[in-house]
Amino acid sequence: MASGDKNLEMGSSPSSSSSDGWKERIFLPTLLAGVVGGGVGLVSKHRKVHGLVNISTTYATNFAIVTGCYCGARESVRASRHSEPGDLMNSAIGGFASGALLGRLQGGQMGAVRYSVIFALAGTTVDFAALKLQPVLISFKESFHGDDGGWFRLPEWSPIQVLDEEALAKKEAREKQLYAQRVLGSDNKE
Length: 190
Fold this sequence. Notes:
By secondary structure, the protein is mostly helical. 76% of the residues lie in helices and 0% in strands. The chain is elongated.
């Protein structure tokens, strides 16, 4: 048995790096675009004419189709070029290809030219912004995760604080003292 046969039997393909992370690069953006499209349909001026459900579904479907086509083309280009996921040339070529395909289906030959330029520019711009915002989003995400492995950590300036055992004991002692003062103070007034 050759080593390639062993890899195929164990379920891992020799080129598994080309499909690593496809959910983050294709599925999640497509799902997010569908949700955004549904939201755009909710505030569309056409919702009264076509109905809220119909227009929201139409927008969600169109956004998801466009995003899925763009992300799939971008990943196909990345796999054929053997480049990294963050390469903006993949975005430009993938946007051009997906725009040409969808534009040809929608508006003929001139639509293909127009859509390919629009998709290349818009897709590359969005990917560039995502690359620049990624460190900010990661630090924001880490701010919610504490070092103790908890899922949420309050900032230091927050008036709501989680107390450890020592601070909790001090708080209880102070509350008992204040309670005693209140009880003694109300006895003296009578």
